[in-house]
TrEMBL record:
CDD domains: SLC5sbd. The chain crosses the membrane at residues 6-23, 35-54, 74-91, 116-135, 155-175, 182-202, 222-238, 259-284, 296-319, 353-371, 383-403, 410-426, 438-462. It is a multi-pass membrane protein. It is found in: Membrane. It comes from the Bacteria. This is Transporter, SSS family. It comes from Acidobacterium capsulatum (strain ATCC 51196 / DSM 11244 / BCRC 80197 / JCM 7670 / NBRC 15755 / NCIMB 13165 / 161). Coiled coil: none annotated. Keywords: Membrane, Transmembrane, Transmembrane helix, Transport. GO terms for cellular component: plasma membrane. Belongs to the sodium:solute symporter (SSF) (TC 2.A.21) family.
Length: 481
């Protein structure tokens, strides 16, 4: 293998470290660390939103799905696209609210119990998301440096992510994402067209793969397509990492403009990733990668394109994974600091103490994510699990906070609890054997979401309406109807 791959990877790591260290001097207060001092312009927001969304879930899980089933994998991406269209209208409301975390919002609109349960749901979902970023990074290190096992690679990636995230918080994450987003966008597009040409063009692709790879619902039917799309859409609508970026925006206008750029970038990149994996399945239908299809994009970068393009492709995939891990590790760390430590343990803590605890939480959650990564076999399955925990437990109550006068504290608490418990228990050993055969094969998103929405609606209907004081910040700031 060309040493160029190692050189490019090393250069990317040093560049990311340089960006983090360069932003470190700007971090002096809790707001600086958690929401970048609410100073991010639209250009930076576009790339940090794009980088936080497209990581191993797309580059490994989505690519694995595309390699095995074809363009039906776009249903996972399409759920995000629909969510983004709705977010265009939510973004300015979120910026007006201008808090630090989603549990901040839950307590302001509901109560402290909703805040605590929200923290728990975020921890389950986001450390799971971080765990499969660690898996992806470990796989890439093993591919580039065979002497490094995939397991050792996970330890190395965890160390990278902890250091990069802890240094400067949101400012570090956001400005690294600009560098990563520009690099990844360019190399993925060029590599996709190169591979399409190398395999002989579209005609060869369509004649080399099963016809189901090019149909709307593929070889698994519409229910499976909805199991891909629905969790993705709901995660997008309630994504705490996204709301934290909106809380970090310089203005409401910057938040709304950033969503437009995010929509365009996501549609292009998600489609390119799926297409590259499909074309890669024609180029490498057998052999090593057919047994580990989640690695198809990195494998194409190593064996299917010229060394310069390949090194940039592998490097950009690696950087995207690091970036997404940074975002999803940083987000629950802010929950533990802002929603537990500052809220209940040390409300008068100095900025220096808060920053020290924040960095400690990043390290502890990074280690927990690594522990989860060691027990994960399928990135796609772990992706859907993580999305479902968050989508079912939090998205309904977050949307109700902005748009409903009738949702009550009791309704929100019951919805968060039901969504979390049903998701976590659905595939567990203690519950799954007792499910009816007709239900056992379904993804948890359907029962979990139904349980959460039912609890929110029914419990809210039989409990007293929220007070005018409780609704006032949302009616005045967000214009809820």
């Amino acid at each position: 293998m060309s040493p160029l791959y190692a050189v490019v990877l090393g250069a990317i790591v040093l560049a990311l470290l340089g960006v983090s260290l360069g932003r470190m001097h700007t971090v002096k207060t809790r707001a600086d660390y958690l929401v970048a001092g609410r100073s991010l312009p639209a250009f930076v927001l576009v790339f940090t939103l794009l980088s936080s969304w497209i990581g191993s879930g797309s580059l490994l899980g989505g690519a694995e799905n595309a390699y095995e089933h074809g363009f039906v994998a776009l249903w996972q991406a399409a759920g995000g696209w629909l969510g983004l269209l709705l977010i265009y209208f939510i973004a300015p409301r979120a910026r007006r609210f201008a808090q630090f975390t989603i549990p901040d919002l839950l307590e302001a609109r509901y109560n402290q119990t909703a805040r605590v349960l929200g923290v728990i749901a975020v921890l389950f979902a986001y450390t799971a998301i971080t765990s499969y970023q660690i898996i992806g990074g470990g796989d890439i290190l093993h591919l580039i440096f065979p002497a490094i096992s995939a397991t050792l690679g996970r330890y190395i990636i965890t160390a990278f992510v902890i250091v990069f995230t802890a240094i400067a918080g949101m400012a570090s994450v956001a400005y690294m994402d600009v560098v990563i987003g520009l690099l990844a966008t360019f190399t993925l597009i060029v590599a996709t067209f190169f591979v399409l040409h190398a395999v002989g063009g579209w005609h060869v692709v369509t004649h080399s793969l099963p016809a189901s790879h090019f149909t709307v619902f593929g070889d698994s039917g519409w229910v499976w397509a909805m199991e891909l799309a629905l969790p993705t859409m709901l995660l997008m609508l309630g994504n705490q990492s996204m709301y934290q970026k909106f809380f970090s925006a310089k203005s409401e206008r910057d938040a709304r403009v950033a969503v437009v750029g995010w929509i365009i970038g996501t549609v292009i990149l998600e489609t390119i990733i799926v297409a590259l994996a499909v074309f890669g399945s024609v180029m490498f239908p057998h052999g090593e990668v057919s047994h580990r299809p989640r690695e198809i994009i990195a494998y194409v970068g190593l064996h299917g394109v010229p060394a310069l393009l390949g090194s940039l492709l592998v490097g950009s995939v690696f950087a995207k994974i690091i970036s997404t891990a940074n975002n999803y590790l940083f987000s629950p760390a802010t929950n533990l600091v802002n929603d537990v430590f500052v809220r209940y343990i040390a409300p008068n803590a100095s900025n220096r103490t808060v920053l020290l605890v924040s960095r400690s939480m990043v390290a502890l959650l990074g280690i927990w994510s690594l522990y989860q990564a060691m027990g994960t076999q399928s990135v796609l399955k772990e992706t859907l699990y993580a999305y479902t925990v968050y989508a079912a437990a939090l998205t309904p109550v977050i949307l109700a906070a902005f748009y409903s006068k009738r949702a009550t504290s009791a309704g929100a608490v019951s919805a968060i609890a039901a969504g979390t418990v049903v998701t976590v228990g659905w595939d567990s050993r203690w519950l799954h054997p007792y499910l009816p055969a007709g239900l056992a094969h379904l993804d948890a998103i359907f029962p979990a979401l139904a349980s959460a929405v039912l609890c929110l609606v029914v419990v809210s209907a039989v409990t007293p309406k929220p007070s005018a004081e409780q609704l006032a910040p949302f009616l005045q700031e967000a214009g809820a109807e």
